[in-house]
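User: Just a sanity check before I run the rest of the batch. Below are the C-alpha cells for the first item. I only need the designed sequence back.
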C-alpha cells in the first residue's frame, strides 16, 4: 500500500514551526531501593485533572490530552487511503506506543523523515546523539541529546539524527504503527520522505 503520496497532500491547518519543538531535562535522578538511579522522561497529567501546573512534569507545557490528540482531518485522509485496500482497518490511528532502538553505534544516521499526525518524544536511554529539525517555513534548529534529556517533536517537522556515542534510543508516540483488518496486519507508518517534505516546503517557505 503506497502512502508516500500523502506526504505532499493538502495541509489542513498551518503546521507548527521549529520553535514549538522542545528539549527538556528528564526529572531526577533519584536513588532507588535497589541502589539504582531513577529518571522520569515522561509524566503528563490530564488537563481535566485541573490540579497540575503546566511546568511541573516533564515534558513541560504538554498535557496528556493534547499529546494524544490528532488532527481529525489528517486522520481521515490517511485512514481513507488505508481503507481503499483494507476496508476493515477502522477509522483511527490514535494510540499510546513506546518503542526503542538498540545497537545504534557512533556515526550512524537515522531519521530524514517527517510525520503528518505523529507526535514523538525522543530520549536517549544510553549514549547521545545530535538532532537536526526543519519546518515547512524554512526554519532550522539543532540540538544535542544526552542521557537525561528528551526532545518533543510535533508533526510536520523534518528530523534527522546522528549518533555521537553508542546509543539506546527510547521513543514515545501518539499513533499506532500496526492496525488490523481481520487477522491481517497492516503497517501504517505515517512517515514521509525528505523529498516529499521539500515539495511541501515549496508552498510555504
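Assistant: Here's the designed sequence for the first item:
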Amino acid at each position: 500500500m503506497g502512502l508516500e503520496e500523502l506526504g505532499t497532500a493538502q495541509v489542513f491547518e498551518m503546521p507548527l514551526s521549529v520553535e514549538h519543538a522542545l528539549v527538556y531535562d528528564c526529572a531526577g535522578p533519584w536513588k532507588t531501593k535497589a541502589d539504582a538511579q531513577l529518571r522520569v522522561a515522561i509524566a503528563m497529567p490530564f488537563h481535566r485533572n485541573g490540579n497540575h501546573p503546566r511546568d511541573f512534569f516533564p515534558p513541560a507545557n504538554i498535557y496528556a490530552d493534547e499529546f494524544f490528540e490528532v488532527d481529525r482531518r489528517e486522520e481521515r485522509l490517511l485512514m481513507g487511503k488505508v481503507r481503499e485496500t483494507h476496508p476493515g482497518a477502522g477509522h483511527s490511528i490514535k494510540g499510546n506506543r513506546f518503542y526503542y532502538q538498540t545497537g545504534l553505534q557512533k556515526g550512524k544516521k537515522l531519521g530524514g523523515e517527517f510525520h503528518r499526525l505523529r507526535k514523538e518524544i525522543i530520549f536517549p536511554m544510553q549514549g547521545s546523539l545530535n538532532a537536526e529539525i526543519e519546518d515547512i517555513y524554512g526554519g532550522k534548529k539543532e540540538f544535542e541529546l544526552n542521557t537525561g534529556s528528551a526532545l518533543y517533536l510535533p508533526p510536520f517537522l523534518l528530523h534527522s539524527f546522528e549518533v555521537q556515542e553508542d546509543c539506546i534510543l527510547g521513543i514515545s508516540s501518539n499513533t499506532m504503527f500496526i492496525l488490523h483488518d481481520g487477522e491481517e496486519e497492516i503497517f501504517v507508518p505515517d512517515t514521509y520522505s525528505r523529498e516529499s517534505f521539500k515539495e511541501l516546503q515549496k508552498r510555504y517557505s
